[in-house]
Amino acid sequence: MADPIVATYSIVGCDLEAGQWGVAVQSKFLGVGSIVPWAEPEVGAVATQAFANPRYGPEGLALLREGLSAQAAADRLTQADEGRAERQLGIVDAEGRSATFTGADCNAWAGGRAGAGYAAQGNILVSAATVDWLAETFEGNAGQPLATRLLDCLDAAQAAGGDSRGQQSAALLVVQRHAGYAGLSDALVDLRVDDHECPLTELRRLYDLHQELFGKTPTEEWIEVDDVLADELRERLARLGYSGELEEAFESWAGTENLEERVQGTERIDPVVLECLRST
User: Fold this and answer.
1) Of 193, 227, 215, which Cα lies nearest the Cα of 276?
2) What is the structure's pLDDT at 1?
3) Mean pLDDT in the chain?
4) 171, 192 in Cβ contact below 8 A?
5) Max CA-CA distance within the chain?
6) If pLDDT is split at 50, 70 and 90, which confidence band does 68 have?
7) Measuring CA to CA, how many Å separate 223 from each of 184, 243, 250, 257?
8) Where are the domains of the chain?
9) Which residues are bridge partners to 111 per DSSP?
10) Structural fold of domain 5-214
């Protein structure tokens, strides 16, 4: 069976201070998130595309886990692959070193740029500007959360021309040790838009929803629940069909709305949760 043609643009990046690695990708290809992005906390991240070799993902992470640099891992993968002339690859390792590879037979325009903490690449693009804007946006928005930086890179790349065939799917993967659901997952963000007329707009919508449900508000910004607010909570919950003791009713509602990660009793309340209840 032939390898899938994943004509696309992607950026692999890391935030060493936050302990995060991730990949963002967009393509005129169904379900691009199922093939291109791979990442492991404290190890690195990989994007595999063009006539994609999906084995580059797990095998690349295994090489990084052994201590190879991004460039050494990219060299090892491509040198062992007879189809390398049609492959494209981006890697960032545990130390933020990066590498990008574009085979000589990838469909034009194809190429990549690598810098401190990122590797940007694309194929069948309108022009080199798409990759340039991936790179320059990442370089210019340091200080923002990694997921936001990667989404901004995709938006800038699309505005610069993007995939010459159009848009269809997009994905965002960011990992951090024990930072995912319930502290038992390393997937901080793992979102995919498999088929959509405006996949980047939809991916941003999903990310905003993800942040609402699973993001974290600093505890110093939580609101003390005094008697007045407690009465308001009881009244609003009762209107929604949640009665009984306040804590039980509140936690039951939060569970229904998938907000349980933002709830810790009823002495204090996350302002995001309060706004959700007030707007329901």
Assistant:
1) 215
2) 43
3) 95
4) yes
5) 71
6) very high
7) 27, 22, 15, 20
8) 5-214, 219-279
9) 122
10) Glutamine Phosphoribosylpyrophosphate, subunit 1, domain 1 (3.60.20)
